[in-house]
């Protein structure tokens, strides 16, 4: 069979990993030289072909695997044998390196390698043209490529052990990348916060893995643990506990309530990093881990794991609404996107929770569709959000540039407090940055779920399936209600972001002078706009069914497929679900955007015309805004808004808790350390130094004394011999 | 097993490494002395070229020639010994003279040959750059040190040491063993004092000689008592006599004296006093040789006497030396480590550390004795395992202890290494060298995954296995009272290891964290051959730790030939 590509598949993560030291060392050696800066783009042109190669290999692997290749074990990593004190037997445990391929892997592999490649292209435009980054971009590219290696490796891993190893590699790299501008205290703080918060999850993840290892007799390979017979031999209660622990790890990585606090701060990193962490890779890792658990739910006894499924859905529902609420008041364009990411990931979690509940309660067919919808949303969200982040990066970059131009060329550094990321300084950019505006236009529509574009195909599925479960299991009503409300809220904050940035009159001098001019940046925007607009093709290919079933799936023909999807959404035979669909669409497409237009809409400057597909909307928003007498001051001054500005006080509470409990405990431990441990050590040290001086004083330097001592030794030996005899 | 007569033709091939050493010695005698001397036939004016003496030829007078000859010889000998170790057709060979067994080549003695020849080879190779040991004030004195004669002397002594050590490894008769021991010892006395211009060298050498002579005399007295008692010094005869009459007074007195003699060789406390003086006076490759191969000689002697002859497996009285050896072991390791803690001279510190290592090996020998004594039963041959661990320790010790001395040697080329502060700032001045020194220190401390960890682990594991014995299979010991006293040796060794980490790590602190001394800011001398030797040691330290399986197997099979 096609074993050849499988043998090379390990190169997909390995190539970037090998490029990591190369870029780092070459960067150290040639830092600042014209050839390195100009020709090699400070390492960007080393990273780019490597990521390209990974992408090509990934696509090759995907095409091959569509013809029936599944995973394989490549080679033995190491063997370990131990002596079991209970039985006295010596057992050998083999640790293998292998790759696992099913539909989930294929989808995420494509997402990761494709987006990593595009972000690399974007970085060459974004990072290398900012004087702030000069002479340290090699560090960026090295860490970037190691991060990509971590993600690709995690996706391809054939056991939870390797998944964890790459997971931690990503954690390390995200720390390094978020803290790229380590000289800024806020960046250093954000990096630390991200690392420590995800660490809380990771501790639980490793506890869960150890429990799983124990349950499955020392196996963490997918091939073993997903075997239905092996699952049947395991106590479902313990399994649920183990999976729950692992789920906490996913919560940390995917920034869900209550471990979500790191994600908005992580925006301190360079924008390509935000795109990388929030769209393509790290946040998806948590989803991937949870999606991987699906077979457990299908194979355990009916109802035995419902609790965990409900918890997953609840966490998702709560985060969806909470993040959307906070997004209402954010002024920083990247922070809006960060909260939007949180909210959308919460949708996926809710969908996964629903899928798992259905699977665990014997509704396998519905579970498949729910799972497929959730994963399809992952795909759509990754594409749209990657694009949105890069587009926001484009806006920030050009704002920065325009600010730099406007405020003379003499003082180049950040010595004034102009915030290039704040939407209060933007406005009216639609005509000045047509490509970026278009990308963001379609990206936002995809996230909102405007019919026929991107996320619409998957979001409807998630909402419908959650409600379907809610009719079976009352506990699901709350998450179901939350995701429904969240749809409308998404419509509001995404429209708000777009309108504040691109519609209306420029709010500052700088915004009026922005031009789209940096090379490289538009390429990924165009590519991802295309991906977003063509989501209907995947929908027509019955991708939900295909994704929902990791190994099987069927294809019924493109037009038939799309017809089935549409019929499912708009002409559902179940009247309550039908109603629900229209409510959801109404909320997200009409109500949310309408309010956003009332508050933030506005026409462009005279003489400025946006591209036709956006111009009508801008004009419409202007008209609505003028006609509206909507007064939101009551809302703006409410205490809820104030606490939303404070991010619902999560950070304050956490900081206080950390100060009280952790610092207190740390002080106690420090006291113990200095007084008792150090005291004991110092005591031992001074005693033995004294002893040493005494012992060495016996070495007088005189041979006569040496012989004397030898004679005493001889007597000692004879004494001992005589004593025994 | 095949038997050959001494000096027959098979003898030379069977003892190829030693033959090569003899040829090398002859070459060292002759070649550097070749010159344009002519011999006048008496009563005539006819002069015929005689070549021996006179003005040396340019080639034969070259300063590096003796060193190259010696290194070539030692390498050939080492290679031949190693080659035969991996030769499948290798059979044990006994050399007899009449009905007296003189020498025997088997897996055990061959392994020791390899250790000894390897150590002398590395030390000689490092010495190529290492004479002079210290740069004195005037540079012309340094020229003098490079003088060809002096070089020839040094390497003659090196080859003699190697030959004596081989003899010790191969000996089947206590008297042959003693001759080999003295051959090697006398050569090392001179090597220690070789540096006669420096006070420390001459003083250390003389002290080492005096104390060593006393110890040899005492040991020889013990041997003569043994001869008086058994009428022979053949190992097998002595062993047979011991198994029947071992509890008599005469052999026990003899054993006491012999313990003193070999105790000095392994520098066990309290016979070790001359060792720190000798190590710090000698130049570093020689000190490294003393700490590794010379100590190995003592261990061979002890194994022959204690395990082969005074086998404690028959009768209660035969186990008489166990407690004495165990006490000696604990005293030695503790003394060595405590003395090393406060040493401010790195060479003395390494000397004390080698005293501590001697204690570990003595503890292992005591454990073997206890196992053979039959107090303990276990599912496998723990005795061979512990001996194997000692052999492994001796082998890898050559890598990291000699390596550490060689790093100090490189510092001596720059102007001395007699204070810990001489090492200060090495991490900045020469990061690679500092890293290798740090690796050696970590290996000495027994940090995984280096070779020093494996060796220490094997010894401690062996001690624990012997100590817990048959209780192992029955689910482990219940109370401390059940445990054999050997277990406490393991504990003592463990505590001592923890103690020793302090002074090993201190070297790292000094190298990496402290600023270099005044006047030591220039780059270190290059010294290609000493650096190459250091690399070899580093690679061996790491490789034998990570994948030393084959060597451990080799040591185990060598140990099994003893039982």
Question: Please, could you describe this protein's structure?
Answer:
- The complex is a heterodimer of chains A (about 725) and B (about 575).
- Chain A has about 725 residues and is mainly alpha-helical.
- Helix content of chain A is about 70%, strand content about 5%.
- Chain A is built from 32 helices and 2 strands.
- Chain A has helices at about 5-10, 10-30, 35-40, 45-65, 105-125, 135-155, 160-180, 185-215, 220-225, 230, 235-255, 260-265, 270-280, 280-290, 295-300, 305-325, 335-360, 365-405, 435-450, 455-470, 475-500, 510, 520-535, 535-540, 545-550, 560-570, 575-600, 610-625, 635, 640-645, 650-695, 705-725, and strands at about 70-85, 90-100.
- A two-stranded antiparallel ribbon of chain A has the order 1-2.
- The longest helix of chain A is centred in the last third of the chain and has 48 residues, at about 650-695.
- Chain A is globular and about 115 Å long.
- Chain A starts with a helix and ends with a helix.
- Residues about 130-140 of chain B have low confidence and may be disordered.
- Chain B is globular.
- With about 575 residues, chain B is mainly alpha-helical.
- Chain B is about 70% helix and about 5% strand.
- In chain B, a hairpin with a 6-residue loop joins β2 (about 40) and β3.
- Chain B has helices at about 10-15, 15-30, 65-85, 105-125, 140-145, 150-170, 175-190, 200-230, 235-245, 250-265, 275-280, 285-310, 320-340, 345-370, 380-415, 425-430, 430-445, 450-470, 485-515, 530-545, 550-560; strands spanning about 1-5, 40, 45-50, 95, 100-105.
- In chain B, strands 1-4-5 form a 3-stranded mixed β-sheet. Chain B has a two-stranded antiparallel sheet with strand order 2-3.
- Chain B has 2 domains: about 1-170; about 290-565, no CATH class.
- The interface between A and B is large, with 30 and 45 residues.
